[in-house]
Amino acid sequence: MKKRSITYAALFCMMGAVACKSSSSSSTSDSLATDTTQMAPSADTAKSAGIKPKGPAPAWAPDIKPEMQAVIEKLASYGDKPIPQLKAVEARKNHTPTDAVMDLMKENNVPKPVFNVDTVGKDITVPGGSIHARVYIPKTGKSAYPVIVYYHGGGFVIANLDVYDASANVLADKTDAIVVSVAYRLAPERKFPTAHNDAFDAYKWVLANAASWQGDPKKVAVVGESAGGNLAVNTAIKARDTKVMLPAAIVAVYPVAGSDMTTASYVKNAAAKPLDKPMMEWFVKNYLNSMAEGKDPRINLVAANLKGLPPTTVITAEIDPLQSDGMMLVDKLKAAGVTVDSKNWDGVTHEFFGMGAIVPQAKEAEMYAVDALKKAFGI
């Protein structure tokens, strides 16, 4: 995403883009997720870790929180070539914020969190092929669990289930719900609207199959980060329009919601890390068939019909080009009569969600999402 289509880039920020490391959107192992413990914290882990940055705060974020800065410093230390200079296949091999958190935990003797969750892999048939999903099932012995359909970030181009494993684990463990993490097909191999179609097909598959793995098909929510936040909202919209059962709730974490890259947060955070404006433009170029598609309401959510959607929670970060997207989405949802809760976290960047083992604000945001989901599920 380079400044060429300022307007459509935003939409792909969603990307957790910044966070991808693997060349495949599916992961190599889906069993016993309890040992894929990346970033979900115990309540006191972040405080006890004593993790400090090594240098001064960056010029683009003078008020960045120290733990967040340490993650950004570690990510920069790998020396990877900037994503906008790479082809998608190469970009998927870059280090990710997940790698930075994992390495900081090792270096500072922060124990990996233990989740009371098992996982199993599932393949979902979709038009033109199949997609993979990792199902996180709590080990608390219930006969039926509410279900969360989760969509990872990566700008529709990079990242995979492993990169966002921490978020899925936290949600399953703390909400006591089954999480189905969806590996939708990526661009440029699969252009718009493939990811959007895969997201909805996965949701329908969950409704039809949840009972076979202890899920309650009457209690299903959608959650997504960045690009995945856009997919979560779009899935609910399509469910409404096609008369499929609506999700019980939507949680959108720093979602891509607009196609205007001249917003206040894009200007302020143009050089932020791990997500900046050039990366956004790169995602747009890779996902869209043409720049005109940036006006499509599936990308430009703030122009979509949002009436009749379920209760929605929007989480934003101060040091993020997409902050304004999330805030504008909140305003549009309220204007459409949707019940909305939202909260912004200062001093943290895009991708902070899921970093609770290191970043205290991430732990707060994770529990904010958990509380919203519990409320929707009647827990």
From TrEMBL:
<feature type="region of interest" description="Disordered">
    <location>
        <begin position="24"/>
        <end position="62"/>
    </location>
</feature>
<feature type="compositionally biased region" description="Low complexity">
    <location>
        <begin position="24"/>
        <end position="37"/>
    </location>
</feature>
<protein>
    <submittedName>
        <fullName>Lipase</fullName>
    </submittedName>
</protein>
<keyword id="KW-0732">Signal</keyword>
<feature type="domain" description="Alpha/beta hydrolase fold-3">
    <location>
        <begin position="148"/>
        <end position="353"/>
    </location>
</feature>
<dbReference type="InterPro" id="IPR013094">
    <property type="entry name" value="AB_hydrolase_3"/>
</dbReference>
<dbReference type="InterPro" id="IPR050466">
    <property type="entry name" value="Carboxylest/Gibb_receptor"/>
</dbReference>
<feature type="signal peptide">
    <location>
        <begin position="1"/>
        <end position="19"/>
    </location>
</feature>
<dbReference type="InterPro" id="IPR029058">
    <property type="entry name" value="AB_hydrolase_fold"/>
</dbReference>
<dbReference type="GO" id="GO:0016787">
    <property type="term" value="F:hydrolase activity"/>
</dbReference>
<dbReference type="Pfam" id="PF07859">
    <property type="entry name" value="Abhydrolase_3"/>
</dbReference>
